[in-house]
């Protein structure tokens, strides 16, 4: 059950919080906010405050690895957001989970611990002015990607597949060597599974059969291939490691770190009297139990409320598109037309198969009460067993590999059509400069042999319409560099009368999933790729027949209809306040400062300028660690 530690552990009442003047005030105690607060408060001479809308959660639903996914849709853990009707996804209002707790979405995510490829990190700075681009690249981020993690539970470099052996020729190693690419002393304990469902081995061997090699170190800069991924699990305790466990708990005794829970940050307060052309933030207005309070910040405010809520706070504060703000009677403090725009989301298409009799999957928990009882007892006694395990195999493929396996050129034709569409829209003036620049980068990545752009992972359990006593497996294929662009903007109770209580409304979430036809073409190729995988000899040994979609779809137009009906967000939503030059439409600069402000930074997934092919939590932790160093360095200048 949810519980609150005592005030002596860094947690405070609203009244007490407001008597303090903070050097740094962080909004949002999630994936980015907590690492920043923890790093800044290492200096006992500064006072750091965190405003977090959620609470501290200690609950088996969150902590037990087997329960990943179980918190989704439960309002005590999840904001339970929903998109606007997605016009190009069968008009559906699609659920979009976001963690509401100290730890943010790291508390409810699937714990997969992953990185993008070096070529992608090298594009992070590309939308900035040339002089600033070096700040954000693989070389500058790798020290932080390794700093955040503790992979010391891995027994040896090659031991990524406990429980079965593979032939050496199926394995490749490239990029930065293992020992230089993996961190052993960071805050987030990560580990490999020690138990595997019967799906893992055929899945990996199936890919090998299709000519996709096993990648022995996907963390070294080249993530193509099939592999096991680490997860943010403390293998000694058998528990999830989220941002609160990794960063807040070890720092909670510090007298200079104050966290206020249940506090909904509503808007920023500015010093409008100063003559400096860039505006200064002096505090944050927030709501607790319906009452309004103000917290004061002396040096900086760091906005880490996540991709969904960060643009809402900016807009309610008067930072955003002047026309949008004017239309809602909000005084425009800084005109930044891109606030809430450029939103991207990975999109996955699921399939499901009945497993052959005797295939052991996680459905055993559903089908076998004795197994459940034994495993529960084992877990309670030791933190080990099947409750401490979950799937973590993924395969990332480039366009070239997908085309080779599918044995056709449909993706090459789709790329040509995409290029023509971009050229036409550029000529007509209907494509913004920032989208042109983003698309240039994405096209470059698509055509790079080593850059994976389609992820296919499995779940060793049924996901829909499961029959008692039966075991299933599911496959998901997902686009990693979507060309669709959406938006997130504030929803007003009365559109002409803004109120700080509008911060309690979920924003208007319109990621415009599948609005670009190329995304659909790639998902279609992903669907065909899953068909090829299930038809390999290793997979045929465990697959009885397909149950989702319920019939074999041989016509592409039927697959496309299924995609629009069944595609799901990857829950890696990014980019609502991108890092780019102001001229191009950026919201933050290379030091993550909001343009037009002197002391407001954004540090969370909203700043990511071009979608990355990865599960994003590790990258966000790394961005936060890097941002903390920047904040400290800028203070001492
Ligand atoms: C169900 C799910 C599964 C996922 N699986 C994986 C996975 O396996 N691996 C992986 O790498 N990534 C995964 N992700 C993605 C990843 O966890 C998130 O993208 C990432 O944690 C970043 O989220 P965020 O930037 O939205 O910030 P968050 O971590 O969500 O932090 C935002 C924080 O701000 C708080 N907040 C928001 N608004 C306010 C406000 N107005 N005032 C005060 N506080 C506020 C929130 O309560 C939250 O604590 C998953 C995400 C979800 C939701």
From TrEMBL:
Coiled coil: none annotated. Keywords: FAD, Flavoprotein, Glycoprotein, Oxidoreductase, Signal. It holds the Pfam family GMC_oxred_N. The keyword Methyltransferase does not apply. One of its GO terms (molecular function) is oxidoreductase activity, acting on CH-OH group of donors. FAD binds at residues 109-112. Transmembrane segments: none annotated. The active site is at residues 572, 615. The keyword Manganese does not apply. SUPFAM superfamilies: FAD-linked reductases, C-terminal domain, FAD/NAD(P)-binding domain. InterPro entries: FAD/NAD-bd_sf, GMC_OxRdtase, GMC_OxRdtase_N, GMC_OxRtase_C. Residues 99-122, 306-320 form the Glucose-methanol-choline oxidoreductase N-terminal domain. Its cofactor is FAD. Belongs to the GMC oxidoreductase family. PANTHER family: GLUCOSE-METHANOL-CHOLINE GMC OXIDOREDUCTASE (PTHR11552), GLUCOSE-METHANOL-CHOLINE OXIDOREDUCTASE N-TERMINAL DOMAIN-CONTAINING PROTEIN (PTHR11552:SF201). This is Alcohol oxidase.
């Amino acid at each position: 059950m949810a519980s609150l530690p005592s005030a002596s552990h860094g947690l405070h009442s609203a009244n007490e919080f407001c008597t303090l003047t903070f050097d740094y005030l962080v909004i949002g105690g999630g994936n980015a906010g907590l690492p920043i607060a923890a790093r800044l408060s290492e200096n006992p001479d500064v006072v750091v405050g965190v405003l977090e809308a959620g609470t501290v959660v200690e609950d088996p639903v969150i902590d037990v690895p087997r329960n990943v996914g179980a918190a989704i849709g439960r309002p005590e853990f999840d904001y339970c957001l929903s998109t606007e009707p997605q016009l190009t996804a069968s008009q559906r209002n699609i659920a979009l989970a976001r963690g509401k707790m100290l730890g943010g979405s790291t508390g409810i995510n699937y714990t997969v611990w992953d990185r993008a490829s070096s070529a992608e990190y090298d594009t992070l700075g590309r939308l900035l002015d040339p002089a600033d681009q070096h700040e954000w690249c693989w070389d500058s981020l790798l020290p932080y990607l390794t700093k955040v993690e503790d992979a010391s539970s891995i027994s040896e470099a090659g031991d990524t597949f406990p429980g079965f052996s593979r032939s050496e020729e199926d394995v490749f190693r490239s990029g930065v060597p293992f020992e230089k690419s993996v961190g052993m002393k960071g805050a987030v304990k990560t580990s490999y599974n020690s138990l595997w469902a019967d799906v893992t081995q055929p899945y990996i061997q199936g890919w090998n059969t299709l000519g996709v090699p096993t990648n022995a170190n996907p963390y070294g800069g080249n993530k193509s291939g099939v592999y096991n991924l680490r997860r943010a699990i403390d293998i000694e305790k058998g528990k999830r490691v989220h941002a609160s466990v990794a960063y807040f708990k070890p720092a909670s005794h510090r007298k200079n770190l104050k966290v206020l829970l249940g506090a909904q940050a509503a808007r920023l307060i500015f010093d409008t009297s100063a003559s400096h052309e860039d505006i200064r933030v002096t505090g944050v207005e927030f709501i607790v139990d319906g009452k309004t309070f103000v917290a004061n910040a002396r040096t900086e405010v760091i906005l880490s409320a996540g991709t969904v809520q960060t643009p809402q706070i900016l807009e309610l504060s008067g930072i955003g598109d002047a026309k949008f703000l004017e239309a809602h009677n909000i005084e425009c403090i800084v005109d930044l037309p891109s606030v809430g725009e450029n939103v991207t989301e990975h999109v996955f298409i699921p399939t499901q198969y009945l497993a052959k009799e005797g295939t052991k999957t996680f459905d055993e928990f559903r089908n076998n009460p004795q197994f459940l009882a034994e495993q529960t007892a084992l877990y309670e006694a030791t933190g080990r067993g099947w409750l401490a395990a979950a799937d973590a195999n993924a395969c990332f493929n480039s366009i070239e590999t997908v085309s080779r396996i599918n044995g056709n050129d449909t993706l090459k034709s789709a790329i040509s059509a995409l290029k023509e569409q971009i050229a036409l829209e550029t000529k007509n003036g209907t494509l913004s400069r920032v989208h042109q620049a983003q698309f240039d980068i994405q096209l470059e990545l698509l055509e790079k042999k080593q850059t994976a752009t389609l992820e296919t992972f499995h779940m060793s359990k049924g996901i829909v319409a499961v029959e008692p006593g039966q075991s299933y497996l599911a496959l998901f294929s997902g686009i990693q560099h979507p060309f669709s662009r959406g938006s997130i903007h504030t929803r007003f109770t009365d559109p002409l009368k803004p109120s700080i209580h509008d911060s309690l409304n979920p924003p208007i979430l319109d990621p415009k999933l599948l609005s670009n036809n190329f995304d659909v073409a790639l998902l279609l190729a992903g669907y065909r790729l899953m068909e090829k995988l299930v038809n390999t000899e290793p997979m045929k040994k465990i697959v009885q027949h397909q149950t989702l979609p319920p019939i074999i779809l041989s016509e592409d137009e039927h697959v496309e209809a299924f995609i629009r009906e069944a595609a799901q967000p990857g829950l890696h939503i990014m980019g609502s306040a991108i890092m780019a030059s102001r001229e191009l439409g950026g919201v933050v600069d290379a030091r993550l400062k909001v343009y037009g402000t002197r002391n407001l930074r954004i540090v969370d997934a909203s700043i990511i300028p071009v979608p990355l092919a990865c599960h994003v939590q590790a990258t966000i932790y790394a961005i936060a660690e890097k941002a903390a160093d920047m904040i400290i360095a800028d203070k001492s200048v």
